[in-house]
Amino acid sequence: MAQESKVVSFSARVPGGRFALPHALVRLRDASGQSLKSVLAGFFDNSDDALFELADKAGSTQDQTAYFDAMRELRLRRKLMTVSILQYISRAFNDIGKFHPDNARTSASLDEVDQDSLSLLDHSELEQRVAIESLVSKLRSRHANAIRMLNARVHHLVPSVRLSDSQMPLSPEVICGGLAEACSDLEIDIRAKLVVLKLFDRLLADTLGDFYQAANRTLIAEGVLPDMKRPPVGDSSRPSPSKSEQVSKPARAADAKSAQGVAGTSSASQSGGTFSELSALLHQGRSSEGQSFTGGDGFLDTGDLMARLNEIQSLPGDWAQGRVVSLAEQLQPVLTIDNGRAANVGQVDSDVINLVSMLFDFILEDRQLHPVMKALIGRLQIPVLKVALSDKNFFNRGGHPVRKLLNELALSAIGWTEKKNGQRDPLREKIESVVNRVLNEFTDNVDLFGELLSDFSHFMDLDRRRRELVEQRLRDAEEGRAKQERAAQAARQMLDDITAGRDLPDPVSNLMREAWNKYLQWKVLREGEGSDGWASAVELTRKLVWSVDPRPVTDSTRTDLLRSIPSIVDDLRHALQEISWDPFATDAAIRDLELAHVDVFQRLVTSKAATSRDVTGEQTADAVNARREAELSGGQPAVEEAVAETEVAAEPKVEAAWLDRADTLRVGSWIELTRDATKIRCKLAAFIKATGKYIFVNRSGAKVAEYHRESLAQAMACKEITMLDDGLIFDRALESIIDNLRSSRKD
Q1: Do 710 and 667 belong together in one domain?
Q2: Do 717 and 644 lie in a common domain?
Q3: What pLDDT was estimated at residue 28?
Q4: Among 190, 230, 459, 674, which residue has the least CB neighbours within 10 Å?
């Protein structure tokens, strides 16, 4: 009786045209608002660190800018975004039954939309919508039980209101719709917006599990179905049939006979809206897409068809040398009855066969899959057809284990290349074992695919960790090499600047090129070019050069040398000891330096010699200055420099569009590299900022290529490098089918 008192009739309205919310829903609205406010506060607190980490690891300047833009906007608008999200969810409570999340409204069925009036979405809007829908799918998959139990309790409170799952006040669609609305006010470009949405995905997907559990506990405390321990069986929350479902009802009734043997589909209403939409498009484009299996002499109902598929599923077939056998070819013996007559199947089964055939046609024609992998995945056509015949939700359920397994298999095979004879190939062996288990063990229990998916995902996680370790070592080595190159360049440039125009004795010159050069590089690596230590090293270098070639010579030069040389020698010895230079070599260098100093003092021993040295020094300085002026005014060195510039200018320029594509290449992207008619699949493992190098590795983590920005863009423009799509192959195949069917309808 206590539970019945919680049920409120919505026949009476409150002023303003709204229904009066039952007390339990008001309590849920207020409690969930406070809970979500805390969740969002934690998100914004962690967003700075997460975005800074992403910016630090960014593979391009554009990516780094997007991350910093997102960081700045989130800092400025965190309060406004929190209020916007909470108000959006509050509207879902206050207007229960009438509120439609924005992302749910965009998913109208194809039967309810005039296809000829559709226009292409703006690319940025499409990307944002895809990101939102991906987050919705992840939340529904990850927290399915808690969400379904919450739905059942809300339905118990308002039984007279027909609510779809997306209209539930705390559904993933409502929460993500609030996120989308809050993000729409951010004054940043689509790249930064997508970063924010991905950040919500990364930081909130797991946290919302506790949020849904707390929402259920709130209603339990209010006495709403307190004894319910698991989600109710069946779809009691299904809303009233849509117009498209009502229109297609006679057609489903006509196919009822052929659908009687389908396991788990007791009524045609469970076939799923997406299947009905695909079926409608298939019939509209029948003249050019698919083929009919309903015109044979004999009749096979679904049960007979499934039995025949079971018989041929594990047969060896003609799969030799990576040959791919189409589904139509595999079905020839199945759809042939006595005396070679063609069998007749129901319209629903015929549509399922055509759709599965189209899906695998796309998958097996994908240039990104190696023929060997195509042959392995192609052997799953019969099992997948059986799943689709028994569960029409297969086509619209993104988290279906069969779909996820196909996606994982295809994704793992993107960077795969065939091993040499005698070499072990763990990935190929694993995929073969998965395929063989499906062929030998699958009858009608789809849980087998979930078990195989879990096992294969565990295998790929271990493989990924191994590859990441190898790639990290490569990145560390490349970054170390880049820092070393930069340090060597800084040391060389500084020595060239200080010794230009100086006459150094050979032993001192050798000291500069070897031991002292190493010390300068060590200083850059350890302290950096802007440090006090580097400034001291530069000053000591100047004093060292001046001590063996003092310019200009004055009356005080000899005195200055006598005062400075002891400290110069001591500082030099200490510096070489810091880098653990060979002590014997250090002593020898110091002795050579002392002999050079003796020569300097001998030249300064008499005033005449000093005067001569002064004149000579002035003449030498004048000669150096004259030579530099000649270079600037068109002398031979300047001509050589002009020739060099002409040669650089003569190199082929890369179009800006290709440079932009190189800038947007992200770490982890797979490419196909063509060299000497050989195709190599590799991925971008690292972008080394210090040198501007893009480092590519094969699937084993071994380095196969490196490019600078311009050469990478040039290789992309010349088709030496082509991008590989690492998206979900099943989803891409389904999108391709829909596009093709729509096109055939218009034609």
Answers
A1: yes
A2: no
A3: 92
A4: 230
Residues 622 and 672 in one domain: no
| Residue bearing the bigger pLDDT, 253 or 733 | 733
Under a CB-based contact definition with an 8 Å cutoff, are residues 667 and 686 in contact? yes
Alpha carbon 342 to its chain's center: 48
For residue 265, being part of any structural domain is answered with no
Q: What is the DSSP string of 38-91?
A: HHHHHHHHHHHHHHHHHHHT-SSHHHHHHHHHHHHHHHHHHHHHHHHHHHHHHH
Contact 430, 456 (CB under 8 A): yes
* pLDDT given for residue 293 in this prediction: 58
Instruction: Return the structure tokens found at 132.
Output: 């939102």
What pLDDT is attached to residue 266?
A: 31
Nearest Cα neighbor of 357 from 740, 43, 29, 744 is: 740
Q: 75 with 135, same domain? A: yes
Q: Are residues 403 and 277 in the same domain?
A: yes
Which of the listed ranges 64-73, 185-194, 580-589, 626-635 does the model predict with the highest average pLDDT?
Answer: 580-589
In whole angstroms, give the CA distance from residue 585 to residue 515. 9
pLDDT reported for residue 339: 66
Helix axes 607-632, 636-650, angle to 10 degrees: 40
DSSP letter (8 states) at residue 343: E
Cis upstream peptide for 552 (omega within 30°) = yes
Which strands form 693-697's sheet, in the order they lie side by side?
A: 703-708, 693-697, 678-688, 670-675, 721-723
**pLDDT band (50, 70, 90) for residue 290:** low
Backbone angles phi, psi at 704, to 5 degrees: -120, -20
Cα–Cα distance measured from residue 603 to residue 411, given in angstroms and rounded to the nearest whole number: 77
| Residue at which a domain ends, from 626, 648, 670 | 648
Separation between Cα atoms, residue 528 and residue 169, nearest integer Å: 56
Residue 442: CB atoms within 10 Å: 22
pLDDT tens digits along 594-652: 888 888 888 776 544 445 444 444 554 454 454 445 444 444 443 333 333 333 344 45
Q: How far apart are the C-alpha atoms of 129 and 177, rounded to whole Å?
A: 10
Q: In angstroms, rounded to a whole number, what is the distance separating the alpha carbons of residues 113 and 110?
A: 5
| Residue 688, strand partner residues | 693
CB-neighbour burial class of residue 129 (10 A; exposed 0-12, middle 13-18, buried 19+): middle
Task: Report CA dihedral (113, 116, 122, 123) to the nearest 10 degrees.
Answer: 100
Q: How many domains does the chain have?
A: 4
Q: Tell the burial category of 153 from Cβ atoms under 10 Å away from its Cβ (0-12, 13-18, 19+).
A: buried
DSSP code string of 485-509: HHHHHHHHHHHHHHHTT----HHHH
pTM of the predicted structure, to 2 decimals: 0.46
CA 665/CA 707 separation, integer angstroms: 12
Q: How far apart are CA 301 and CA 343, in angstroms?
A: 10
| CA dist., res. 148 & res. 134, Å (int) | 19
Chain-centroid distance, C-alpha 372: 26
Question: What SS3 class is residue 317?
Answer: coil
Compute the Cα dihedral for 371, 375, 376, 382 and give only its sign.
positive
Among 354, 437, 347, smallest CA distance to 395 is for 354
Range of the domain at 325: 271-445+734-746
Contact between residue 175 and residue 89 where contact means Cβ atoms under 8 Å apart:
yes
Same domain, 49 and 168: yes
Q: Tell me, yes or no, whether 239 lies in a domain.
A: no
pLDDT for the residue 582? 86
Is 411 in the same domain as 356?
Answer: yes
**Cα–Cα distance measured from residue 437 to residue 449, given in angstroms and rounded to the nearest whole number:** 10
Does the pLDDT of residue 664 top 50, yes or no? yes
pLDDT digits (tens, 9 = 90+) for 157-212: 888 787 888 888 999 999 988 888 888 777 777 777 777 778 787 777 778 888 89
615 and 687 share one domain: no
Instruction: Choose the final residue of a domain: 648, 670, 699.
Output: 648
In this structure, what token pair is assigned to residue 85? Answer: 């999200």
Q: Tell me, yes or no, whether 699 lies in a domain.
A: yes
